[in-house]
């Protein structure tokens, strides 16, 4: 299961290597569609980390990263956002997006 990022673990979690972060909301239909894909990636990815951020519970993080719609997938490399995808995407697309920065 993908770890939920909070204000207390956010900086440490994204600071090293490549990290895929799913920014979601429980009330978001497309977020519910992509959620099983994120879970699969979190169980299978060995080259990068996978996390989730709930926009309703982590407003400080959301304000910092400037996400305006969900789902948004952010790719971090060593703490910096290097790519983003807004909306639903296939597992292969998200995996390829993250691996591009290894």
Characterise this structure:
The model has no long low-confidence stretch (mean pLDDT 96). This protein has a single domain, classed as 3-Layer(aba) Sandwich (Glutaredoxin), CATH 3.40.30.10. It contains four helices and five strands, in the order E-H-E-H-E-H-E-E-H.
The CATH fourth-level homologous superfamily: Glutaredoxin
Number of domains: 1
Query: Do you know the CATH topology?
Result: Glutaredoxin
**SSE succession:** EHEHEHEEH
Distance between the termini: 22 Å
Number of helices: 4
**Radius of gyration over alpha carbons?**
12 Å
Low-confidence stretches: none
> What general outline do the C-alpha atoms trace?
globular
The mean pLDDT is 96
How much of the sequence is in beta strands? Answer: 25-35%
Helicity, as a percent range? 25-40%
* Major sheet strand order: 1-3-2-4-5
Main CATH class:
Alpha Beta
Number of strands: 5
Give the name of the CATH architecture.
3-Layer(aba) Sandwich
Short synopsis of the structure:
The chain contains 4 helices and 5 strands. The model has no long low-confidence stretch (mean pLDDT 96). Helices cover 36% and strands 27% of the residues.
């Amino acid at each position: 299961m993908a770890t939920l990022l909070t204000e207390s673990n956010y900086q440490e979690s994204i600071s090293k290597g490549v990290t895929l972060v799913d920014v979601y909301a429980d009330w978001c239909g497309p977020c519910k569609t992509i959620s099983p894909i994120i879970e699969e990636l979190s169980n299978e990815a060995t080259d990068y980390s996978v996390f989730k951020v709930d926009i309703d519970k982590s407003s400080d993080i959301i304000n910092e990263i400037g996400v305006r719609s969900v789902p948004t997938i952010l790719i971090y490399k060593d703490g910096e956002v290097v790519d983003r995808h807004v909306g639903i995407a296939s597992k292969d697309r998200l995996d390829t997006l993250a691996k591009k920065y290894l």
